[in-house]
């Protein structure tokens, strides 16, 4: 989930290193992998997270009350996924939320003493021999080559000297943006992928994502694979969907469907690892929920569905892109119990995003996604194995 944080950043340049190299395996087409692990103890507030999503995307209006593997933690219930990276020399471990819906990399500085910063690992630049001060300042607001070693890239990042209180609820220390440089907060700053490709650190200019759901994988085994594709994680062949606009990973969604029936809905959209839910236009959200007995658009909670649909793995919502249909089982629409005695759950599909649909983690945890930053960028998608 996007975290709403007003952060004052001071840019710095340092060696940024992925963690935990892994041996090459037949199903890995090169790359450096960031594994995901599950955090069963984190306490969250779905209503608060939905409010944050509203602010990230103002049109949403969801009402609320080489090979190196970096493990990812699944924050229950599939709320967000984060991994640990090593920063600087000697390495300092920082937990980051990998986010294809933004491009900045930032985390707290040791000089930050706000309540939110004190809840996170903070980077001590004075202890890093590879740190070089850049000096530029800005603020950011979130409106919500295969080798035996890890990837080492010299990278401009942001060190937060202040964070808003909302960021304190996130178990991650910061954000690792994987979008294009056109949406960097400071003009001229290159993204991690730009720098890794320029340094020849990646066998392929891709980041492949496997997010494990609690329902199917108990939240275990997820990974971000930098520079490679893990063919063991998906079935069939990848369908490459062209990026229509660089910034976010924006693509054309040709149709939305329900259990094989077209709903006559289409839009531009983005595939966003940093957003928990699927957020569509109002008409598309209505058309989907019209097919679900007991679904209602609750004035306080947005779209809700009976929690009993968590048992329905036969019916599904689908999205058509580049001639292929990609499914999300109805079971994943029962996102989380409202806990009000109604037997209803927050729906994994919400409305309000009428101009640019968001295919967030509810979509990605059912479909392997390869973000390919070639001269003609695209997203390769295939159903999870």
From TrEMBL:
Keyword Protease: yes
Keywords, in A-Z order: Aspartyl protease, Disulfide bond, Hydrolase, Protease, Signal, Zymogen
InterPro entries for the chain: Aspartic_peptidase_A1, Aspartic_peptidase_AS, PEPTIDASE_A1, Peptidase_aspartic_dom_sf
Domain Peptidase A1 stretches: 81-382
Disulfide bonds: 112-117
Gene Ontology biological-process annotations: proteolysis
Entry EC no(s): 3.4.23.21
Top-rank taxon: Eukaryota
Family membership: Belongs to the peptidase A1 family.
Protein name: rhizopuspepsin
Gene: PGA5_1
């Amino acid at each position: 989930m996007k975290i709403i944080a007003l952060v004052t950043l001071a840019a710095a340049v340092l060696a940024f290193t992925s963690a935990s190299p892994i041996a090459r395996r037949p199903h890995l087409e090169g790359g450096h992998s960031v594994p995901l692990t599950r955090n069963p103890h984190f306490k969250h507030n779905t209503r608060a997270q939905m409010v944050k999503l509203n602010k990230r995307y103002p049109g949403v209006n969801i009402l609320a009350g080489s090979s190196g593997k970096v493990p990812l933690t699944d924050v229950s219930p599939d709320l967000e996924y984060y991994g640990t990276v090593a920063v600087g020399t000697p390495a300092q471990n920082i937990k980051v939320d990998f986010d294809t819906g933004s491009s900045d990399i930032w985390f707290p500085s040791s000089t930050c003493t706000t309540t939110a910063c004190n809840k996170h690992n903070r980077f001590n630049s004075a202890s890093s021999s590879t740190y070089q001060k850049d000096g530029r300042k800005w603020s950011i607001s979130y409106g919500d080559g295969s080798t035996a070693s890890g990837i080492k890239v010299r990278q401009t990042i942001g060190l937060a000297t202040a964070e808003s209180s909302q960021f304190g609820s996130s178990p991650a220390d910061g954000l690792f943006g994987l979008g294009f440089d056109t949406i960097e907060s400071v003009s001229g700053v290159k993204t991690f992928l730009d720098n890794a490709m320029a340094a020849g650190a990646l066998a392929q200019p891709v980041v492949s994502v496997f997010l494990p759901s609690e329902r199917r994988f108990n939240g275990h085994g997820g990974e971000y694979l930098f520079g490679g594709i893990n063919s063991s994680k998906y079935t069939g062949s990848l369908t490459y969907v062209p990026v229509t606009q660089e910034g976010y990973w924006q693509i054309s969604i040709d149709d939305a469907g329900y259990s094989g029936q077209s709903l006559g809905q289409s839009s531009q959209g983005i595939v966003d690892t940093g957003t928990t839910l699927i957020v569509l236009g109002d008409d598309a959200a209505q058309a989907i929920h019209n097919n679900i007995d007991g679904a209602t658009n609750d004035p306080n909670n947005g779209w809700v569905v009976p929690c009993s649909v968590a048992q329905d793995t036969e019916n599904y919502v689908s999205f058509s892109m580049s001639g292929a249909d990609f499914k999300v089982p109805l079971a994943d629409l029962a996102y989380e119990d409202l806990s009000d005695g109604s037997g209803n759950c927050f729906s994994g599909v919400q409305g309000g995003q009428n101009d640019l649909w968001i295919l967030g983690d509810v979509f990605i945890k059912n479909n392997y996604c390869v973000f390919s930053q070639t001269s003609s960028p695209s997203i390769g998608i295939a159903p999870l194995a």
